[in-house]
Design brief:
Blueprint (H helix, E strand, L loop, with lengths): L29 H34 L5 H35 L3
Length: about 110
């Protein structure tokens, strides 16, 4: 039985829109930049996710305080810090994306 082996020439490969696929370059200096960029994006996402959790926790604490001034104050403080963290995450992402567009190796 003969085996049929097909080889695909990836140099001429195109995507579904007909644009040529990008080939891996020999530019290894861009690799650390890519890893750092991905790590910063993940960190900003985690800060935003934690801030959302603080807002939810603060809201539940505030709603279930039942007139207890200590729980009300803790809930309000958690809501305030959560909102501040969301704003800081958004501002840091704005700064990050601005810097990345200026420094990215093209």
């Amino acid at each position: 039985m003969k085996r049929f082996v097909s080889y695909i020439d990836v140099r001429d490969a195109t995507d579904t829109l007909g644009k040529p696929l990008e080939q891996e370059s020999d530019n290894v200096s861009a690799l650390p930049f890519t890893y750092l960029s991905n790590a910063i994006q993940i960190l900003i996402f985690l800060v935003g996710f934690a801030a959302l959790g603080a807002i939810i926790y603060g809201g539940i604490l505030y709603i279930t305080s039942g007139g207890d001034t200590d729980k009300t104050a803790r809930g309000r403080r958690s809501l305030t810090y959560g909102i501040i963290a969301i704003v800081l995450a958004m501002v840091s992402y704005l700064i990050y994306s601005t810097i990345v567009t200026k420094l990215s190796p093209s």
